[in-house]
Amino acid sequence: xxxxxxxxxxxxIISNITVPLLGLVDMTLMGHLxxxxxxxxxxxxxxxxxxxxxxxxxxxxGTTGFTAQSYGSKDQSEISYSLYRSFTIAIFxxxxxxxLQHPIAKLNLIILEGSDELLNLAITYFYVRIWAAPANMxxxxxxxxxxxxxxxxxxxxxxIVINVLNIxxxxxxxxxxxxxxxxxxLGTVIAQYCGLATALIFLFTKYKHxxxxxxxxxxxxxxxxxxxxxxxxxxxxRSILLVFTIAFxxxxxxxxxxxxxxxxxxxxxxxxxxxxxxxxFAYAGEALVGKFIGSRDSASxxxxxxxxxxxxxxxxxxxxxxxxxxxxxxxxxxxxxxxIIEQVQPYYIYMVLIPVIxxxxxxxxxxxxxxTASKAIRNTMIISSLLVFLxxxxxxxxxxxxxxxxxxxxxxxxxRGVTMTLSAKKNIxxxxxxx
Length: 435
Description:
Layout: H1 2-31, H2 37-54, H3 58-72, H4 76-99, H5 101-111, H6 116-129, H7 133-148, H8 153-176, H9 180-206, H10 216-219, H11 222-255, H12 258-294, H13 298-325, H14 327-334, H15 338-344, H16 348-370, H17 374-400, H18 402-434
Helix pairs in contact: 1-2, 1-8, 1-12, 2-6, 2-11, 2-12, 3-4, 3-7, 3-11, 3-12, 4-7, 5-6, 6-9, 7-9, 8-9, 11-12, 11-17, 11-18, 12-13, 12-15, 12-16, 13-16, 16-18, 17-18
């Protein structure tokens, strides 16, 4: 079982490492410009897309769960139609986003907080990066489908292509063409389409035999669509609440001023770095849990869950130790601004706590997605975000300021892990009965 987990997890970890690396490069490019406002601008611009894409991130998670279960039950037709149904939604969603880009931008100008200069730069970033939406949506579907097919090497290759090219293009546009936030956004757009081209090449070569002729009656089968939309609606609500919490954290950070916003965005990079490592095992959980549920193999299902949590502990403790010993060198990699380096030091404790108290939430996410236990994952997110994070933010921030904001966020992650642990036995076993 460990070999199966690592076979799927290691390529995911390798591909995920390139994601925070890209974030670090973007932050570093902006952090060495004349003003901290550039860091805040791409952070808020990135927040806009995190919220926007949260409405559609179910395309990856839902596709993985359905495909993995079809793979486990050896249902060749449903393997193909899992991709076709997701593709159909992705095409309509991306067109809708492009048509509504101006109202979306105006809405964000109303919601976001920050100086006029920061907001103008963030919207400049938005209007360039928005043209990557079609590629981003289709990549959700393709990556989810590949993982469901128990193949994480292809998503790894795609992610490496995207993020390496993104770094190259961003460095070129910022340092050579001197286009600051616009250059970072343009690098993202070009890299996303290069990644989509790479994914389609893999699909039409390695999996060509699954590209069966589309039967409209099968595509719109009422029972299949009902379950498809039920699961994906729950996952969409879960994703919206997750990104809402992170976005709310970012917006509240901006309310403390541009310097604290930059401090918090730098610290969040270390949260993302750890999450991408842990997500490697969560994605392995999605693929294997889905497969074992599809094949109705409860013994292997229980074993994979136990082993995933062992791996979670194996990676969280080293991260906490490294963050505790080398906090300042890590921060200096992102920004050499003396004001930021001084202001970040009181918050080092949160870097250390992040790995230890968040790994359970990441792993359960993968397990629940593989089981398509969407109602449970939705409900646990509602509790964690609306009944834990928000009340704590309003109780603690007036007393402890930015420390209160960080405590509220970490309690949100703890609540996710605890609520999913308490409901796991019922929901995961129920998935086998329902399949």
